[in-house]
From TrEMBL:
Ranges of residues in domain Response regulatory: 6-124
Keywords: DNA-binding, Phosphoprotein, Transcription, Transcription regulation
Any single GO BP term: phosphorelay signal transduction system
Membrane-spanning intervals of the chain: none
GO molecular function, one term: DNA binding
Limits of the HTH luxR-type domain: 152-217
One Pfam family matching this protein: Response_reg
Keyword RNA-binding among UniProt keywords: no
Taxonomic lineage: Bacteria, Bacillati, Actinomycetota, Actinomycetes, Streptosporangiales
Sequence positions bearing 4-aspartylphosphate: 57
PROSITE patterns: HTH_LUXR_1 (PS00622), HTH_LUXR_2 (PS50043), RESPONSE_REGULATORY (PS50110)
Superkingdom to which the source organism belongs: Bacteria
Protein name (Swiss-Prot/TrEMBL): DNA-binding NarL/FixJ family response regulator
Length: 224
């Protein structure tokens, strides 16, 4: 029998922590292994418990979720711990920084319970997950930042035109199925393209592909 996915819940509101924990415990393939009320606690418990996924709030006392994510991601003993962050519209400006810190996914706090549970499973499986609403707002935020003179730096050398199309759609928040429909490709072909992009761009996961698409200038105001 497959071991359940072990989840650490980190949120400064006790009611929300309890609600998330109760929701997680309703499924046989997930289990809540602990709760953290601060970012510092989240880092400590991630090291002590080694969960598969940390469900992390962005705003928390004694270390915000972004810095907590960075510390979890950079520490050798917790580098494999995946962080799924929950955000509200008023903290979307921090999403880009959190992606760079190593977060594997983002969802809005009003995400339906079933979607939240599915998101935990997706992230635990090694995929990255970005809610399309968050991604669109992230693109808008990035578009307001100063751009480099060279719109497509050498990081994209060796990436084919078709791979750039796929990368653009990944950065827009489309799922593999949506990309396949958009480009009239099979799902297996899309997965192959994404695998090649991960290898060529030395990216850890889908979230890093999003960062590269933004930083390279491949995704910008015209992609909204």
């Amino acid at each position: 029998m497959t071991e359940p996915i072990r989840v650490l819940v980190a949120d400064d509101q006790a009611l929300l922590r309890g609600s998330f924990r109760a929701l997680i415990e309703t499924t046989s393939d997930l289990t809540a292994v602990g709760e953290a009320a601060t970012g510092a606690e989240a880092v400590e418990l991630a090291r002590a418990l080694r969960p598969d996924v940390v469900l992390m709030d962005v705003r928390m006392p004694r270390l915000d979720g972004i810095e907590a994510t960075r510390r979890i991601h950079q520490a050798t003993d917790t580098a494999d711990v995946r962080v799924l962050m929950l955000t509200m519209f008023d903290v979307d400006a921090h999403v880009f920084a959190a992606l760079r810190a190593g977060a594997a996914g983002f969802l809005l706090k009003d995400t339906p319970p079933a979607d939240l549970l599915d998101a935990i499973r997706v992230v635990a499986a090694g995929e990255a997950l970005l809610a399309p609403t968050v991604t669109r707002r992230l693109i808008a935020e990035f578009a307001r930042q100063p751009r480099t003179a060279n719109p497509l730096p050498r990081v994209l050398d060796g990436v084919t035109d078709r791979e750039r199309q796929v990368l653009t759609l990944v950065a827009r928040g489309l799922s593999n199925t949506e990309i396949a429909d958009h480009l009239h490709l099979s799902l297996a072909t899309v997965k192959t393209y994404i695998g090649r992009l991960l290898t060529k761009l030395l990216a850890r996961d889908r979230a890093q592909l999003v960062i590269i698409a933004y930083e390279s200038g491949l995704v910008g105001p015209a992609a909204q």
